[in-house]
Amino acid sequence: MSSFEQWAQSCSQQLENAISKRLPSGEQFPQRLHQAMRYAALNGGKHFRPLLIYATAAALDLPRERVDSLAAAIELIHAYSLVHDDLPAMDDDDLRRGKPTCHKAFDDATAILAGDALQALAFRILSADDALTDDPAVRVRIIRHISDAIGSHGMAGGQAIDLESEGKSLNAAELEAMHIHKTGALIRAAVVTTAYCAPDVTRAQEEALDHFAKCVGLAFQIHDDVLDETGDAEEMGKTVGADRARDKNTYPNLFGLSESRSMARSLIDDARASLHDLGAKAEYLHLLAEFVISRRG
Amino acid sequence: MSSFEQWAQSCSQQLENAISKRLPSGEQFPQRLHQAMRYAALNGGKHFRPLLIYATAAALDLPRERVDSLAAAIELIHAYSLVHDDLPAMDDDDLRRGKPTCHKAFDDATAILAGDALQALAFRILSADDALTDDPAVRVRIIRHISDAIGSHGMAGGQAIDLESEGKSLNAAELEAMHIHKTGALIRAAVVTTAYCAPDVTRAQEEALDHFAKCVGLAFQIHDDVLDETGDAEEMGKTVGADRARDKNTYPNLFGLSESRSMARSLIDDARASLHDLGAKAEYLHLLAEFVISRRG
To answer: Which PANTHER family match (chains A, B) (predicted)?
Structure first.
């Protein structure tokens, strides 16, 4: 196992502990709802957003424990969005990461409510967790950024654009706009709000990290589309080719595989270039950026 | 029109302006999502929670403008919960306030996303609106209370309990627990977080207002159940007797109509007694409490 893989595994472990501690136990009333929330939030996954948070913290000399609650909140938001996206009224997916989706393991109503409650819990964590910051103004700034990133101008808006565009052909600008909303906004929020926690971060560093996150987020999505065409069904945990089969708007459908790969590569180069002034402490951000376009699932 | 009705109408007007200003226009991309959010949030209704907020503000000498954003945020959360509750996977209602429910006017997927985005917008407003407070610590306290009140230990939890209990008979304690979660927590949050905005509010006043809100919230629900048995279909904007027909757990089903009415009356007496020390400035809270059990729709 490479040192990057070791680092990622230890971050994932720390994140799962952080989430598990903050989620009500499945024994707590109302039990079924809490079980569904735990099922949705603790089902593995790549933990890409939390890894970005821990890597950004390392680049800014913040101890990991400082951003555990931020990582947990962002992952809970991501988990809620997947639960709702998978619903029959939305993407109607039966499998997520090789396991039954939340509404399959429970039921549609419970999945809707589990998603709703996970969103609320994320804001509860951001507003209440002591280790995040001593400064309420920083806390407010973090909540403002995240609430903006996941609303109608961000993640929820992106999902709406995605649904509306099914069966229609998007051009390159429209496809990019969809992804900037749907996944880009939360990925950027993960990195930028981590920077908010560092007391002596400069404006230039915030902007460099934001640019990094913007590029990495888009590359992540392009590579996801590429994997969906070429990937290994078992590693992906879902049906390969599903996006193409449903005539979805993807980068390979619009640009072809080779051009899509090369777009992702340039975005990662651009992302890494923006880390220049952070020096060697940005090591995990560099490694994470490379991982984005080398992963096979 | 009584002076209370005039006051309530002017509060409602102010609230609708406050909400309308804070919601993206229906022309803004993604349009359909924004149209659904506006449809759900600006469809009239009793505005009970905002009226409680404005009445509490009056009792504590806070100008109405100070709590416009709080009233808007709480009403957006209430609106999101109705949109999700009405979905086919949940209560499956076609009508809300005499108009097609959000998923009927749009579609299920858009209704799910509109609800999600309304929740996020509420937190955006609470974290960003300048008039609410100058003190970020107060802002954080408000967000903490509200995020707690609407999660799995509050509103979303209550809806889960409601769904699970359908077809089962709840006893009095279980029925009360359901309502304390489902509607009580947000009603209490509306009143208590308004108190947080008043710089010189005492702990005793906060507790008195919390007790007031707790009693009024439960009376509101009991009276709702009573109206559902006896009310006028047109005024209610939904099918009378629907709760009984579906064998739902309601106060009249458990206690009979007359006992339910008298329980609501005692709760309102109890609520009003707790306002004693606030004196004449609590006038609108008293009037609102009486309105709760005298309204016919």
So the answer is: FARNESYL DIPHOSPHATE SYNTHASE (PTHR43281:SF1)
Chain B CA closest to residue A112: B84
Cβ-based contacts of B87 with chain A (< 8 Å): 89, 109, 112
Classify residue A109: in a domain, yes or no. yes
CB pair distance less than 8 Å for B140 and A144: no
Do A127 and B119 lie within an 8 Å CB cutoff?
A: no
CA atoms of B8 and A108, how far apart (whole Å): 38
pLDDT, one tens digit per residue, over A218-259 is 999 999 999 988 875 555 555 555 555 556 789 999 999 999
A136 touches chain B (CB under 8 A): yes
In this prediction, the answer to ipTM > 0.90 reads yes
Q: How close is the nearest chain B Cα to the Cα of A104, in Å?
A: 13
- pLDDT tens, residue by residue, A56-107: 999 999 999 999 999 999 999 999 999 999 999 999 999 998 999 999 999 9
Q: What is the largest CA-CA distance in chain A?
A: 52
Is the CB of residue B112 less than 8 Å from the CB of residue A119?
A: no
Judge whether A274 lies within some domain. Answer: yes
How many Å apart are CA B195 and CA B206, to the nearest integer? 6
The verdict on residue B297 lying in a domain is: no
CA distance B294 to chain A (A): 32
Inside any domain, residue B296? no
Interface test with B, best of A113, A145, A181 (most B CBs within 10 A): A113
Q: How far apart are CA A102 and CA A36, in angstroms?
A: 7
What's the mean per-residue pLDDT of chain A? 93
> In this predicted structure, what is the pLDDT of residue B232?
58
For residues B109-129, give the mean pLDDT. 98
Q: What is the CATH number of the domain that holds B49?
A: 1.10.600.10
Number of domains in chain A: 1
Phi, psi at B293, each rounded to 5°: -105, 5
Whether A176 contacts chain B with CB within 8 A: no
Dig out the tokens for A214 from the structure. Answer: 């913007």
**A282: which 2 tokens?**
């940005």
Per-residue pLDDT at A208 exceeds 60:
yes
Q: Dihedral angle at the C-alpha atoms of B47, B51, B52, B57, nearest 10 degrees?
A: 150
Average pLDDT of span B22-27: 98
**Interface residue of A147, A148, A170, A193 to substitute, partner B, most B CBs within 10 Å:** A147
Task: Tell me whether residues B124 and A148 touch, CB distance under 8 A.
Answer: yes
Tell me: the pLDDT tens digits for B140-186? 999 999 999 999 999 999 999 999 898 888 999 999 999 999 999 99
Contact call for B112 and A140, based on CB within 8 A: no
**A98 CA to centre of own chain:** 18
